[in-house]
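re: ur question from the group chat, yeah i did fold both. here u go
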Amino acid sequence: MKKQLQKIALVSLIVAGFSLQAKAQSEVRAKGILGTEIVTDVQVKSNAKMKANYSNWKFPVDAIEQLASLDRYVNFLFQDSTVQFISAEGTARFNTWTSVGAAFTPNDENIELSDDNVRLSRYNEYTVDSLYFPYLYVRYVDSMDVAGSMTEVVDTLIVQFFKSENLESSSFTPTNEDPELYMKPDNWTPSLLGSNNTSYEIKIPLRGVDSTARPSAEGWGSRNRVVALPMGFDIDSDAATEALAFTNAVGFSISYKTMLDYDFGDTMEARNGAEITNKLNYFGHSFFSNSSVQVKQTKYINNSWWVPNTIAVGGNQNGWRNSVAGNAYFDDRYVNYAFHITTSTLGTEDLNDNVTFGVYPNPVSSSETLKADFNLINGSDVTIEIYDLLGNKVKEVVNGYYSGGEHKVDLNILGLSAGMYIYSVKAGSSVVAKKITITD
């Protein structure tokens, strides 16, 4: 049974807007071949902190690894289930998986346990410029006869990107457990090997230069792939409603299509050394399986998803359609990936001190409620004051002790006339001062 690692309350507001179809969905046992990944490349990471700008890679699986022991494998993708894999024992099994992907929100509190200990608030807008993931591409055939002429084989990697409007938000309930949240594509279109509701899609040609080594007795060697997104792939904040709506989510999926002809029963790989008569090229991805303490996803969204072949051909698996959320497997599954994100709403004065702070909306109408979200590394006394541009204090809106963690408070701006002001936040020895505009 899954165990609650952190005491996270699931309030009704969180799931109020989620679809009811999730009640028919249940946990799933993973089927298919698991291969051992030989890590051959170092993960790409950078850490850029400039004035009024934060930029870094975010690896959700790194945060999970702070909480549970994970096993690393590779999974194989093919466009349908008609080809097979032969194990070292000589057992032939048809390929199980068609596509894989993940949804990401940067305000997941577990992210704070890894990389540079910086977690964006739900109120931070941000831009995604790149996706990173380890992959394997085993290539047995470099050329084929096309109309009597030998032609280079060019396979295709299909990468789709999603914003919150392209994803469905819902929950499922593990046996005798509280509901868990997830996001994943709202449809699967077999002819596209993906969704017909995306924000961006790129088809990447795969040639010999992209290939990885053929598997050894120890497993499959991986390589790194970085996919650039178009400029201005901006993700909204999640500040529009009181309840979590996950409008600050971003997602991706990958699928593989080969140029080679193949027939029912052809073999991708024979681990027992058997001769393959009609050789194929195939693609795989790196992922982690959690057979340790389960990390409950009851407050934020950071789940992977898989499209098993049963779903790809129009069926369902334990009530799941379009895809299966990775946290619905009995051993939670996580794709190995990272997004490179940038935000201009988190400055160096925030990062180097005790407090990360933001207000919304900004500008704010004098008839609206100004809200503040701040995250304390350590518990401390917090004072929030508002000054006019001449340096005169016009409001003291917060004065009290707050424990370490994330807090949200309403700021009273009644009586302030329209104009520009400075709000000052003091937390222990840390001070943050920024502008706020009040309109009529």
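okk and heres the other one u asked abt
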Amino acid sequence: MGVTIHYRGSIDDLSRVEDFEDRVIDLALAMGGNVRLWRTADEATPERMVRGLILDLAPGQEPTTLLLSPEGWLINLVEIEEAEKGQIAEPPWCSVKTQFGPVEGHVALVELLSELKARFFSNLEVHDEGSYWEHRDVKKLKANLDFLGRAINALAAGLEQHPLTAEAAEDPDILMTRIERVAAQVHQILARPAEHPPVMFPEDAGAPPDPEENERRWDELFQENRRRQEQMERSMQERLLRGADIEDALDETIEEMAPFHPDDNEEDAEHIAELAAWEHSEEDEPWSDADDLEPVTAGAEDSGVDLLGRKRHPLQEQATKLLLDLGDATRHHGRPHPQIDLALRNACEITGGLAQVHPLPPAYELDDMDIGMGLTQLKRALRGAAFVAGALFLLRDSGVIDKPQFELFHNACQTISGEIISLMKHVRESQTS
């Protein structure tokens, strides 16, 4: 027995697919989740395109598939090939298991489906085993989840400035207030225009004087970059499916998303010169004996050094080991598996976020701009660790990993998360020292 949300339906107007996708991307990024746009088609019939999104809304919650068949029907991941070939006769039921995630994740998914029904899928049917869709009864939902045993705490809550304590989270009134805020946030994000004003820093390229404002702007810039990344991927895949070669598809996508301006060259040259002027030393990386290291070649076994021959920070080594060990433990599954994909993608988010931060200048002597960027990337890594930890419960539940493997990987996630939080605290304190 588990707590699962089932849904099925079709989009009212296929011409509004991109509007639907962009709004869900906004929601995922604003709520600390992850999202991927999807475009595939059968080689024999490229006009039969499957499109939509795969949404990771909360740690411990199964991915939500919002993929559309060429007919506009919502379909499951395992039905993509059948949809491309026209072998599905009617809209199928899709499902998301939420029992290993936080109550807020279940509520957010229900409210998302409610807003999508109102705006894009008027015939959407939903069956919620937690009974929240039918009654909006948080106490009943929480009782259902508690009966099964809440597997994890929402580590993503640790990204907030003032998260709820474990004791406060058990208070019905406080929990109700939090749930109401999550529900309101979902509806607000889905209702607003898809366009966003550009993220602006002061004209002198300095950071805002208020540390929280500086960090907020970097978070917004990260979200804007993620939106553009997914939109570029969508544009690329559609061009490739229409028969363009990869170089033309890339050129056309770049011109569409970021038109060339002659003045850009001068700014780019200045930025490249600044990067070239920063020389790393052993003082920058006290864990590194750079003279004794050789550059790593592609395909070589992991040796604890990066492609420039610098030894990785210990936290990066832990994250890289987790990624490689997860890959080894799940390699025996030959066919695509959504939980394996969820775990490995977010393990990559940990290593990617840390790679953007390290190496830091000595003693974390960062200027305000570096601090804002660094904290945003550390939060990216922390989100990745939260989603990996949640995916482990799903992998154990489906028999992909056994109990000893689960405990080993989960302990590694907890250790990495703790060290990231400590580093975030250290960097934040450097702003006031």
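fwiw on the second one: The chain is about 50% helix and 10% strand. The longest helix spans residues 211-241. idk if thats what u expected
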